[in-house]
Amino acid sequence: MPMQKKPSYPLAILEAVFVNIIWASSFIIVKLALKDLGPLTIGGLRYFIGFLLLLPFLLRRGRNYALPRRVWLQLFLIGLSAYTIGNGAMFWSLRYLPAITVSFMMGLITLLILFGGILWLREIPNRMQSAGILVTLTGTIMFFSIGVKPGEPLGMAILCIGLLAFTAFGVLGRDAARGQKVDTLALTAIPLALGGGLLLPVALLIEGLPPASPGTWGLVIWLAAVNTALGYVMYNHSLQVLTALEMNILLNLSPLLTALMGWFLLGERLTVLQWIGMSVVVVGVALVQRPRNEEEVENEKA
C-alpha cells in the first residue's frame, strides 16, 4: 500500500473543527428522527447508507484490499466499537436524556482516551495538555453539579457503555491512521460496512421498520451523507496528524454548538452554571490544542 501524504497540522485542525460542527448537529437530528424511527434503526440506516455512498469511490480506485488478517480484525473492531455499540448506545440514550446532556457526556471520552493513548499508543500529554485536561474536567463537573432528573440514570448507564466503546474506537482509529495501514477512504468505508451492517439487521429485528415521514427519511439521508460519509472521512484524514487525545479534546467543543441548536430547535435550556461549565471546557480545549513545537512535530513525523 503506497504511503499517503499527511495533511499539515493546521489543515488537520481545520478538518477537525469542521467535523466538530457537523457532529454537533447529529444529536439534534437524531432527537428529531426519534419521533418516527427507533434509535438502533436510525444508527443502522445511517452507517450502512453512509458506506453505500462511499462504495463507488472505493471501487473506482481499483485498489487491492487484500489486507493482513490483523488489519481486517482491527477494522472490524473499529466498526463494532464505533458504529454498532458506541453510536447504538448513544442513540438509545437520547430516548432518556436531553441532546445537550448526551453531547456533553461525550466529553468524558477525553479522560478515557488519555489512559488508552498512554497504555496502547505511548502518546504522553505534555504539561500544557495535562493542564487543559484538568480544566476540561473541571468544566464537566460544573455542568453536572445541578444533578440529574428522574429517569436520566438509565440513560446515563446506557451512554456509559457507548463511552467505553468510543474510547476503543478512538485508540484503534488513531493507531490505524497513524500507521497508515489502509488509506483514509478504506479506513472510513470498511468499518462503516462492518459496524453498520451488523447493527442494521439487529435493529430491524428488535424495532422493525415503522412508517416514517419523508422529512424523517430526509434526516436519515442527511446523517448518512454529511454527518457520516463526509464527517468520518475528514475525521480519519486528520487523525494522520492529530493524536487521539487532541482530537477528542477538540470534540469537547461540540456541546456548545449542540446547546445553541437544542435551544432553538428543541427548546432545551441550560442554567447559568452549565453555561459557565461549558465555557471552562472551551478554555481547556484551547490549552490542549496549542501549537506544537518543532521537536514534537519531528517526533510525529518519525
Share of helix, binned: over 70%
Query: What's the overall geometry?
Result: globular
- What order do the SSEs take from the amino end to the carboxyl end, as H and E? HHHHHHHHHHHHHH
* Cα radius of gyration in angstroms: 19 Å
Total DSSP E strands: 0
Number of helices: 14
Give a nutshell description of this structure.
With 302 residues, this protein is mostly helical. It has helices at residues 9-24, 26-33, 39-60, 69-93, 99-105, 109-121, 127-143, 152-178, 184-207, 214-238, 244-250, 254-265, 272-288, 294-301.
Structure characterization notes:
The chain is mainly alpha-helical. The chain has one domain (9-301). The protein has 14 helices and no strands. It has helices at 9-24, 26-33, 39-60, 69-93, 99-105, 109-121, 127-143, 152-178, 184-207, 214-238, 244-250, 254-265, 272-288, 294-301. α3 packs antiparallel against α9 (184-207), α4 packs across α9 and α6 runs antiparallel to α11 (244-250). The radius of gyration is 19 Å and the shape is globular. 52% of the residues are buried. Residues 294-302 have low confidence and may be disordered.
